[in-house]
Amino acid sequence: MFKAINTKLAIAMLITACATWASGDHQDGHDPMGEPAKKTTRTVQISMSDMMKYTPNVIQIKRGEAVTLAFKNDGQLKHEAVLGSLPELQKHAEMMKMHPDMEHDDPKSISAKAGETAYIKWKFTQPGTFYVACLVPGHFDAGMRASIIVK
Ligand SMILES: [Cu+2]
Q1: How close is the Cα of 139 to the center of ligand 1, in Å?
Q2: Separation of 73 CA from ligand 1 center, angstroms?
Q3: Cβ-defined contacts of 125-130 (< 8 Å, 24+)
Q4: How far is the CA of 57 from the centre of ligand 1 (A)?
Q5: pLDDT tens-digit profile of 36-94?
Q6: N or C end of the chain: which has fewer CB within 10 A?
Q7: Where are the domains of the chain?
Q8: Which fold has domain 2-150?
């Protein structure tokens, strides 16, 4: 009985935390990374592998550039790609351990099964170093992340 209540509470907390995360850090809705893009001028191909790697693992983008990030799953396992800051992604990866089946449905994340390619179209309006990480439980801890350098 006590355990059941705890589980419910944990899930409620998780949903709140994930919703907060998805809407970005800023109360005014301004996203420090930029904004979703409809049209893009460049496509970057990124391979995801069961070695818990993205290739390439450093992506350079010009400030103001709208790019299509094409994530191809070259492994056998399911993989994800979620954009964010490192602390944001770390926090979210911890939450995913509690609720591994949670699906992400927002412009900053995709998931792809073996052989599939999934796309994030994003306009990077702010300079800085951002990250893309796989939040399938265990993958982030195994080092499945790449950096995105905007300047
Ligand atoms: Cu993965």
Answers
A1: 5
A2: 9
A3: 125/33, 125/34, 125/35, 125/63, 125/64, 126/32, 126/33, 126/34, 126/63, 126/150, 127/63, 127/151, 128/32, 130/33, 130/83, 130/84, 130/85
A4: 13
A5: 999 999 999 999 999 999 999 999 999 999 999 999 999 999 999 999 999 999 999 99
A6: N
A7: 2-150
A8: Immunoglobulin-like (2.60.40)
